[in-house]
């Protein structure tokens, strides 16, 4: 379990650093444009790419903590067994989507590798930009898979039946 904990910490740090980098980059661009009267040609592109990385890596981190948005009407008002079944079904649908998206995005990376596309302003291979897509979906798949076992616990969700599930 230490590997899973370290992975969660890494996801949190990477997503946070991407957000901080994005804020710093965009702030620097605003300062340059409005105070110095010149613009940085690469800042908007870098800010966008950092945001994309923060979203996909952050998605896995949020999945670990069961903080994704969800429709919990059934889980709030259904009997505990029905809440467990619908929660597990929702997780299985999410897992299926993430696995398909992982497979599709790996194919997208292979296509990008063949075309040799580069980011216009930064000049880097767009593979580095889009690498976060399969990585984020794969990490989210791992998180959902690990979270599925909670539905097998007889006391989960302990607060179903009118009180809400708390995490989803």
From TrEMBL:
UniProt keyword terms in alphabetical order: Cell inner membrane, Cell membrane, Membrane, Transmembrane, Transmembrane helix, Transport
The organism's place on the tree of life at top rank: Bacteria
Keyword Transport among record annotations: yes
Subcellular location: Cell inner membrane
Membrane topology, from the record: Multi-pass membrane protein
TM region positions: 12-31, 46-64, 85-106, 126-146
Residue ranges constituting the Tripartite ATP-independent periplasmic transporters DctQ component domain according to the UniProt record: 22-151
Family: Belongs to the TRAP transporter small permease family.
Function description: Part of the tripartite ATP-independent periplasmic (TRAP) transport system.
Subunit structure: The complex comprises the extracytoplasmic solute receptor protein and the two transmembrane proteins.
The protein's name in its UniProt record: TRAP transporter small permease protein
Species, as recorded: Spiribacter pallidus
């Amino acid at each position: 379990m230490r590997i899973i904990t370290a992975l969660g910490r890494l996801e949190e740090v990477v997503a946070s650093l991407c957000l901080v980098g994005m804020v710093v980059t965009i702030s620097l661009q605003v300062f340059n444009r409005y105070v110095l009267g010149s613009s940085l040609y690469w800042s908007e592109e870098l800010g966008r790419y950092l945001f994309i990385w923060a979203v996909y890596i952050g998605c896995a981190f949020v999945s670990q903590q069961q903080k994704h948005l969800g429709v919990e009407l059934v889980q709030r008002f259904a009997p505990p067994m029905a809440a467990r079944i619908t929660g597990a079904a929702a997780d299985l649908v999410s897992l299926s989507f993430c696995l398909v998206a992982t497979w599709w995005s790996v194919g997208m990376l292979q296509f990008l590798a063949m075309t040799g596309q580069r980011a216009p302003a930064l000049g880097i291979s767009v593979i580095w930009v889009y690498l976060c897509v399969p990585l984020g979906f794969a990490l989210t798949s791992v998180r959902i898979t690990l979270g599925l076992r909670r539905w097998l616990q007889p006391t989960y969700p302990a607060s179903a039946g009118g009180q809400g599930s708390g995490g989803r």
